[in-house]
Automatic annotation (TrEMBL), chains A, B:
Function: Involved in D-lactate, but not L-lactate catabolic process.
Alphabetized Pfam families for the sequence: FAD-oxidase_C, FAD_binding_4
Protein known as: Probable D-lactate dehydrogenase, mitochondrial
Assembly and oligomerization: Interacts with CSRP3.
Record's keyword annotation contains Aminoacyl-tRNA synthetase: no
Listed GO MF terms: D-lactate dehydrogenase (cytochrome) activity; D-lactate dehydrogenase (NAD+) activity; FAD binding
Keywords: Acetylation, FAD, Flavoprotein, Mitochondrion, Oxidoreductase, Signal, Transit peptide
GO cellular component, as recorded: mitochondrion
Subcellular location: Mitochondrion
Family from the record: Belongs to the FAD-binding oxidoreductase/transferase type 4 family.
Chain ranges of the FAD-binding PCMH-type domain: 69-260
Catalytic activity: (R)-lactate + 2 Fe(III)-[cytochrome c] = 2 Fe(II)-[cytochrome c] + pyruvate + 2 H(+)
Entry EC no(s): 1.1.2.4
Length: 503, 503
């Protein structure tokens, strides 16, 4: 009985303390004066140039590529090392100032908005590629290193990093948001490709999530590496991957690399129906073809792409495919896939090997976002992000298209169909409150349709600001309570990117 | 300042409470009488047959396949459903009784020993395969379903589950210990193949780690499925995978399935040196050959296998390889790999397609454990489990063999070389305290050698009982503190499998 009572008591104690701290942190006037007071300490850590109060800089760091309105931080700091990040975090922690990590600002869910003001940690000055090990297929990078920067650094090594969300995002930002994209069907998402993280916690503590990391190898004392597999204690790496800056600041990530494929073939194929395109996808995966990319575009999307890129693809559901492998295995992969698409009524199967034709084929897919925007000049775009079991994809896409038409909304569909993940690129007039409301209600219906099909409200963009309520519906109160308790354990003052992921 | 003080205070409050609770839980006499008191409640939950005090049953549930001594629980319960697991857990929670989940007892690190007595939850009566979705490549299983049982269930579907730790373990147990094995180099470990878990927490709360799960699909109301990808909130799934029963009881797992390969080819190749075998492995991986298995056996291991299975492989470092794919891609995979092995001085490259010859080829690898034991009849075996970056593998294996010889120890080496993970199968006389001590010191030296090479003390077997101190050395005090705080958050009374993973 005694146990029962105490067990019931302690969370209450902790929570009441947290609430008091939260109130202090969110008091606007009080906070601004606190910020003014700590500026000298910030400057002593990362220099005069490392601290900015300029309105332009703060505005620039208060928004990402989503439609969420800009929420500028009180100040932006530019640390140059993990020790500076840690020192700055300690100051923020002591003074209860919110901390918002910032990579490249290419997120799509409002993840960098300073909802409660505070200090934006821009990590662009930490941009070194560290410890490349070709033999071990791994590399460690600082948060300022982007996906494209890493791949050009790797160009002559025969290796590459395949996760490709489209934007040239910071790799640590991609870790924080668990990015994925078009290659995930073959190479996995960030989650499957991160071997270790260096993280600065809310109180400034520096940890490595998988082994101490940076352990000098006694043959090459200046180098470090990482074992490909480990089963040592709780998996901290995956707790921070996808935590969207709410549990800590990722200051280093060790990534798994892959051999650059000997050859690449791209293909495009048109289908009489969504069902036919999805059936082909399932059968291609089932047949064991190690397809690298398999992207779906609906008729509206293809039409937009034709107009935007002066192409002439048939205006029907379409698959864009990419195959990686040896010359010989590619021939087989392409033949098997073409047979499958033909059995499902696919036509105009065009494929290309040379880079120029390949990039022309893929141009439509790569320009989809701009093609959608061009449908209504002067409008903004917002991408939905549901993901469902493959078998449910035709049904949800058909119902969603009916919903779009019924509500007079423009939302061409592009999807990573191999994962069951698709996006409606909602093109909307930000100055039309009625349309904004209709889009809002549509995206909620779409998410609930996905949940009803055992799907998720976010396959890759994350929860950020806009999906916190949907997350509760998806996970259920009990699992949310577990997430909440993990957050309170690692960040008891709720300083790390407050107001994101959890409500 | 106020914040700083309180932040410093609250963990102290919580900890002192936890310590008091721990003391109560570990009092032996007190606990036994508590157990007697709750037996009627246990019986009312899972029936007379569902509760056992028999010494034989308790002994059987107090040990796994490791050399750790048997630690029987006070009582073994056999729940038949997640609701019974939850009801039993609530009783244990109210009375501060330790809970030890038990699958098949095939663990290798003493994970099931009841270090503080308490209640063993044997999950063998929950043995249903649920919700198979061939089109979605997923299946959900209860904890009593083993790896082999699932694959025979799947036989006619064209799908299979590839993770293969050797033993016919329970799939939920494999999730709890993050098992991997010989196929991991191509298909990943449990971590990469678990889509959702149903977990009962220490207080009896039931959660799903990735979406509510068991959500009726409105087309087939009795079925459920799972999206292949999700990015919704913190990754609870991977927090429980590998937690070794210390955070909750896994009562259901949804697994990713794969198409059964059209064809399989096995091969064996001998090498002049460890370096040559490892270089071949790295080059095969680098060349993009999607190798399914690549196993290393050292000369001592091969010699033992030759004797045990009346084979005649050259007594040199040897690789066993397996390729999965289409007839045509296999030919190319095998040719590429054979060329690479030849460039590295590999010889006697034998390969086989038909099942009978394949299983004869692999017999040596599959019987390695027994072959090692046969080296010293009447002795026991203990498998070390370090994992290092591939580039460090030759050096650590060479140094480890020297160490074995210098200390007169029998420890043939078999390894999942594609992952940098290898095992010394230590054959030891359990009645020779001096040898036990030498083995103990050797395994510590081996683990520290791996850590010095940025490796891990456990690639797949987990921490369990014997590696808790090494885990601290590997992770560092700060990361261990984070793990400890996660444990205290999810299990404040330290009831879940106490004394494992963390000290």
């Amino acid at each position: 009985m005694w146990c029962g009572v105490s067990a019931a008591l302690w969370p209450v104690r902790c929570r009441s303390f947290l609430l008091q701290c939260r109130n202090i942190c969110s008091g606007n006037v009080g906070r601004k004066s606190v910020v003014d007071g700590v500026l000298p300490s910030f400057r002593s850590v990362c220099g005069e140039d490392g601290v900015s109060l300029s309105e332009a800089i703060r505005e620039q760091h208060g928004k990402d590529e989503s439609v969420h309105k800009c929420c500028p931080p009180d100040v932006v700091v530019f640390p140059r090392s993990v020790d500076e990040v840690s020192a700055l975090a300690k100051i923020c922690h002591m003074h209860c100032l919110p901390i918002i990590p910032f990579g490249t600002g290419t997120g799509l869910e409002g993840g960098v908005g300073a909802m409660k003001g505070g200090v934006c940690f821009s990590l662009r000055n930490m941009d070194q590629v560290l410890d490349l090990h070709v033999e071990d297929f791994d590399v460690t990078v600082e948060p300022g290193v982007t996906r494209k920067a890493l791949n050009s650094y790797l160009r002559d090594t025969g290796l590459w990093f395949p996760v490709d969300p489209g934007a040239d995002a910071s790799l640590c930002g991609m870790a924080a948001t668990s990015a994925s994209g078009t290659n995930a069907v073959r190479y996995g998402t960030m989650r499957e490709n991160i071997m270790n993280l260096e993280v600065v916690l809310a109180d400034g503590t520096i940890i490595n999530t998988a082994g101490k990391g940076r352990r000098p190898r006694y043959d090459w004392p200046d180098e470090t590496s990482q074992s490909r597999k480990e089963n040592a204690g709780y998996n901290l790496t995956n707790l921070f991957v996808g935590s969207e800056g709410t549990l800590g600041i990722i200051t280093k990530t060790t990534l798994r690399l892959y051999g650059i494929p000997e050859a690449v073939v791209s293909a495009v194929c048109s289908f009489p129906s969504v069902q036919a395109a999805v059936d082909s996808t399932v059968q291609i995966l089932q047949s064991g073809v190690p397809i690298a990319r398999i992207e779906f575009l609906d008729d509206v999307m293809i039409d937009a792409c034709n107009r935007f890129s002066s192409l002439s693809y048939p205006v029907t559901p379409t698959l864009f495919l990419e195959f990686h492998g040896s010359e010989r295995s590619l021939e087989e992969q392409v033949n098997t896939s073409e047979e499958i698409t033909q059995c499902n009524g696919g036509s105009d199967f065009q494929w290309a090997k040379d880079e120029e034709t390949r990039s022309r084929l893929w141009k439509a897919r790569h320009d989809a976002w701009y093609a959608a925007l061009a449908l209504r000049p002067g409008c903004k775009a917002y991408a939905t992000d549901v993901c469902v079991p493959l078998s449910m994809l035709p049904q949800i896409i058909v119902e969603t298209k009916e919903d779009l038409i019924a509500n007079k909304l423009t939302g061409p569909i592009a999807g990573h169909v191999g994962d069951g993940n698709f996006h409606c690129l909602m093109v909307l007039d930000p100055n039309d409150p009625d349309e904004l409301q209709r889009v809002h209600l549509f995206t909620e219906r779409l998410a609930r349709r996905a949940l009803a099909m055992s799907g998720t409200c976010t396959g890759e963009h994350g929860v950020g600001l806009g999906k916190r309520a949907l997350l509760v519906e998806e996970m259920g109160a009990q699992a949310i309570q577990v997430m909440q308790s993990l957050k309170e354990t690692l960040d008891p003052k709720n300083l790390m990117n407050p107001g994101k992921v959890l409500q």
